[in-house]
């Protein structure tokens, strides 16, 4: 700790005093308390706490003392629960103040918080690490020189952080929509090249397609996406982390096929290679469909879906295991009852277990195309059991996924509300 004297510090939270050593504050689990370790002056301290006593080296926080006591139990034992007879939203507000999130709560309390938020539609915005967008505390040395870099980073990464970020996000969305319209239109019969072209004509068509209106629009969209990706890479803090992010990987998968197809068109010369390149180019061009996922940067719904899948991968694996086990059992039994036994009536649709797997997965997901169905009485009884089992097996893990989806949605709304405050301040100024 760079400010104050003495081997220990005292936190006074709502009249309750806690004593800690200086080294403990450095890696304290509560973000607000750990910020005290880096304070250089009394002004910096007053940005973190409400008051400071230099003589006793005591920091005052005008917060709920009982709620902080439960938060300290989490620091010591790793379990965070609600204070009895205290509003869940009020306690959650205390958690946000000290630097905790809803994911730190025990699962039972997370469900209570999700239900309460769903009922009241109340959203609390987490505070900015440096006192919020309107904070006027002294910045550390060198912060002014990096201010423009941080602003550019937020402009490209957070669509709601400023007016310029919203304009940039709108332009990016328009490019995605235009590229998707061109992709869909290129599959129309009037736009496609005739299938009976010769190899030389197909090569000439592939080379000249870039100069057509659709090719020009595609090149402009690719140029915009490439420039956007390069700028975001340059202004990113951690280049390795930037490359590992899923959305950035998707951007790379959406941009790379265009350049590969152009290179293949330029360097492919022999007829046999042209025939193979024709199929490859069509596959690469169809990979432009990944551009749709770029919309996840600008819509909370898609971000919530991706974050939910990331956090619930265990539940998703469990769901797939349930389906695979049931599919193996019911497909083997249905093949035996419909085709394997010599009952005088054989259903050719169930000639093999892999063929029966299609019927099982369609029945368990309650889609029921009707393209194949059992005709024997034992097979129909088995089909009914298969449908009921599918409903039960699918319903079990979905409860966990639903609660995680609600929590992810609230977290993303909190972050969006935080940057909306800075956008409102910029607009008013």
UniProtKB/TrEMBL annotation:
InterPro entries: BTB/POZ_dom, Ion_trans_dom, K_chnl_volt-dep_Kv, K_chnl_volt-dep_Kv5/Kv9, SKP1/BTB/POZ_sf, T1-type_BTB, VG_K_chnl, Volt_channel_dom_sf
Pfam families: BTB_2 (PF02214), Ion_trans (PF00520)
Primary location: membrane
Example of a GO MF term: delayed rectifier potassium channel activity
Topological relation to the membrane, as annotated: Multi-pass membrane protein
Gene Ontology CC terms, in alphabetical order: cytoplasm; voltage-gated potassium channel complex
Name used for this protein in its record: Voltage-gated potassium channel regulatory subunit KCNG3
Assigned protein family: Belongs to the potassium channel family. G (TC 1.A.1.2) subfamily. Kv6.3/KCNG3 sub-subfamily.
Localization annotation: Cell membrane; Cytoplasm
Organism from which the protein derives: Erythrocercus mccallii
Membrane is among the record's keywords: yes
Keyword Transcription regulation: no
Membrane-crossing residue ranges in chain numbering: 163-188, 215-235, 247-269, 289-309, 316-337, 349-369, 381-405
CDD domains the UniProt entry points to: BTB_POZ_KCNG3 (cd18422)
GO biological process assignments: action potential; protein homooligomerization; regulation of potassium ion transport
Encoding gene (name): Kcng3
Keywords from the named record: Cell membrane, Cytoplasm, Ion channel, Ion transport, Membrane, Potassium, Potassium channel, Potassium transport, Transmembrane, Transmembrane helix, Transport, Voltage-gated channel
Subunit and interaction comment: Heterotetramer with KCNB1. Does not form homomultimers.
Domain BTB, residue spans: 7-116
């Amino acid at each position: 700790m760079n400010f104050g004297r003495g081997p220990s510090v005292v936190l006074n939270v709502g009249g309750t005093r806690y004593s800690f050593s200086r080294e403990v504050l450095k890696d304290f689990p509560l973000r607000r308390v750990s910020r005290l370790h880096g304070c250089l002056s009394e002004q910096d301290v007053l940005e973190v706490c409400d008051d400071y006593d230099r003589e006793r080296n005591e920091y005052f926080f005008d917060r709920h003392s009982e709620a902080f006591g439960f938060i300290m139990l989490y620091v010591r034992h790793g379990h965070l629960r609600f204070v009895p007879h205290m509003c869940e939203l009020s306690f959650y507000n205390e958690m946000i103040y000290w630097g905790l999130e809803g994911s730190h709560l025990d699962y039972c309390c997370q469900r209570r918080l999700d239900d309460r938020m769903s009922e009241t539609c109340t959203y609390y915005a987490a505070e900015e690490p440096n006192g919020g967008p309107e904070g006027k505390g002294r910045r550390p040395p060198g912060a002014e020189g990096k201010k423009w870099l941080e602003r550019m980073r937020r402009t490209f990464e957070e669509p709601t952080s400023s007016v310029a970020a919203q304009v940039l996000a709108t332009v990016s969305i328009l490019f995605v929509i235009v590229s998707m319209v061109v992709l869909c239109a290129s599959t129309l019969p009037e736009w496609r090249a005739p299938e009976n072209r010769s190899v030389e004509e197909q090569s000439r068509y592939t080379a000249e397609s870039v100069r057509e209106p659709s090719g020009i629009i595609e090149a402009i969209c690719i140029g915009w996406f490439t420039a956007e990706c390069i700028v975001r890479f340059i202004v990113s803090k951690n280049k390795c982390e930037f490359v590992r992010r899923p959305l950035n990987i998707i951007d790379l998968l959406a941009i790379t096929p265009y350049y590969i197809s152009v290179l293949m068109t330029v360097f492919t010369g022999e007829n046999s290679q042209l025939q193979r390149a024709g199929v490859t180019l069509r596959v690469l061009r169809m990979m432009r469909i990944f551009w749709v996922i770029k919309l996840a940067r600008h819509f909370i719904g898609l971000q919530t879906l991706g974050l939910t899948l990331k956090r619930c991968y265990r539940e998703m694996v469990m769901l797939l295991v349930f389906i695979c086990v049931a599919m193996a059992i019911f497909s083997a039994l249905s093949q035996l009852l419909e085709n394997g036994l010599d009952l005088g009536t054989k259903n050719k649709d169930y000639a093999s277990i892999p063929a029966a797997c299609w019927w099982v997965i369609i029945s368990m997901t309650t889609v029921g195309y009707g393209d194949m169905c059992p005709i024997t009485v034992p097979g129909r009884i088995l089909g009914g059991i298969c449908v009921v089992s599918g409903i039960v097996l699918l319903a079990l893990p979905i409860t966990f996924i639903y609660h995680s989806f609600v929590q992810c949605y609230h977290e993303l709304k909190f972050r969006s509300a935080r940057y909306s405050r800075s956008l409102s301040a910029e607009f008013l100024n």
